[in-house]
Amino acid sequence: MSTFLAFLYAAVLSGVPLLYGTLGEIITEKAGHLNLGVEGMMYMGAAFAFMGGYISGSPVVALLFAIGAGVLGALIYAFLTITLKANQNVSGLALTTFGTGVANFLGTSLQKSSVSVVVVPASVVNVFKPLDMGFLSDLPVVGQLIFSHSLFTYLAVALAIGMHLYLNKTHCGLNLRAIGENPGAADAAGVNVTLYKYVHLLVGGAICGLGGAYISLVTCAGNWQQDCVSGQGWIAVALVIFVSWKPAKALWGAFFFGALRILKLYVPASVISLPSAFYLMLPFAVTCVVLVLSSIRMRRENQAPAACGVNYFREER
Predict the structure, then answer these.
(1) How many helices (H) and strands (E) does the chain have?
(2) Residues in contact with 9: Cβ distance below 8 Å, sequence separation at least 6, in sequence order
(3) 124, HSE (Cβ side, Cα atoms, 13 Å)
(4) Residues 6+ apart with CB under 8 A from 39
(5) How large a percentage of the chain has pLDDT more than 70?
(6) Hey, which residues does 223 pair with through a beta bridge?
(7) 236, 49 in Cβ contact below 8 A?
(8) What region does 153 belong to: left with phi over 0, alpha with psi -120 to 50, or beta?
(9) What b/e string do you get for 71-104 counting C-beta neighbours within 10 Å, with b at 16 or more?
């Protein structure tokens, strides 16, 4: 039982960056843009959070650097696809390549700039360690699973719930959904389509940047590791389809894929003897299955926003 609880707890920890990436892409696609640059924005968030935390020794600065990096990546993508009407798929792939290169360059350069190993100070890393909530953390089962997580985890859950309420219960959220379905009709109704797109794409980038910060400050414990994101941005893009563009469903979807990523650590070799490569490819294999199954689900509420991936030309409405 203790091993199973440890597995569930580790699945939550592993699923947090996926949740950030998924939420960032959901808000982006609701605005009618398919951004395949989630991986790049998460890499930039990881590198800038590492750099900001190391230079300043402040957790607030580290988070601001991560958010700024994600916003910068999203701004590049938004300018290309909203203002210049560039192809969204190509722009997103270019952002992934750019973000990965910039992040690895910054991280490696910072490591080589000092004789000693460069590590984010404990004053930063300790802020994002699991919280001790007193007797709540000591409760059996739920204490470990619910009341023993870091600020990053609780912020991700709050973002998922808040985004659900925003998209379904607010006037601005309904306007955003209208833009994702039919930007011409939303424009005719007086909605500033360009402003909505820019704002929500930048918000999506900021959320992805926070996912990268989690990886460098929590998963890597303040150490820079080359290729630390390791495909999690791509899994997040597929997760958006898996959860049918619904932020509330992203909670369990992210933790399910998080469980797949750490499964190899909890399956005894004496029970099931499989090569480690099988477990490494498992999340990506399930991602492929998800994409196939989602393509045959014909219910309209489970489909992507109708205008997602299509640039809006105002003169053609």
Answers:
(1) 14, 0
(2) 144, 145, 148
(3) 28
(4) 96, 99, 100, 229, 231, 232, 233, 234
(5) 94
(6) 119
(7) no
(8) alpha
(9) bbbbebbbebbbeeeeebeebbebbbebbbebbb
Which pTM value belongs to this model? Answer: 0.94
pLDDT, tens only, 103-142: 999 888 887 665 556 788 888 999 999 998 888 888 888 8
For residues 215 and 242, what is the distance between their CA atoms, to the nearest angstrom?
22
DSSP conformational letter for 215: I
Least confident of 4-8, 26-30, 179-183, 189-193: 4-8
Distance CA 125, CA 219 (A): 10
Record the tokens describing residue 177, joined without a space. 């959904």
Contact indicator for 213, 46 with CB cutoff of 8 Å = yes
Q: First vs last Cα of the chain: how many Å apart?
A: 60
231 φ/ψ angles, rounded to the nearest 5 degrees: 85, 0
Phi, psi of 31, rounded to the nearest 5 degrees: -85, 0
Read off the DSSP letter of residue 311.
-
The two tokens of residue 180 are: 């994702």
Q: The tokens of 109 are what?
A: 């350069």
Per-residue tokens: 257: 């894929």
Interval 139-196: pLDDT, tens: 888 888 899 999 999 999 999 999 999 999 999 999 999 999 999 999 999 999 999 9
56, two tokens: 């300043």
Nearest one of 266, 269, 239, 263 to 253, comparing CA atoms: 239
